[in-house]
Amino acid sequence: MIARTIGFILAPAVMINACAVALNGLLAHYAAISDRLRGLAKERLELLRLRVEASRGLFVGERLEEIDTQLPQLLVRHALMRTSILWVFIAVSLYVVTMLIIALAAFSAPWVATLALVLFLLGTAALLGGVSLTVLEIYRSHGAVDYEVRQVSRLRVGERRGA
After folding, report:
1. pLDDT tens digit string along 140-149?
2. What does pTM read for this prediction?
């Protein structure tokens, strides 16, 4: 009975390990988006300073417009990744609680085993929610990259928009 209970407890432990691997990648992606947001905000501030000092570069206005377009898009992606990460952490928490409930179920009433199953399934649903949000963010990320590449590709030295 004890060996079987330990075997049951290991199933959520495997899921926790899988979540840890997924979280590692998600957190790296989240950090990359955060760094990009900070970089663009810093660049925008510097360009505004250049504009105020009347030492405008050829593409200062153009780049400010690009940054103003990209910052809101990146904020949406950042929020998606944050929510995704939170869902995966919720999944890990549910799997840990499931492990404790399984251990209790071995020595308690049968309804405790049902509770463990429900918590395990909720953990799996939370993991699915986190993964789904990540898929949505990755789908949206193409738009931001596409916009920047198209904007930069259409620029020519000596030209300004509307000129």
Report:
1. 777 776 777 6
2. 0.61
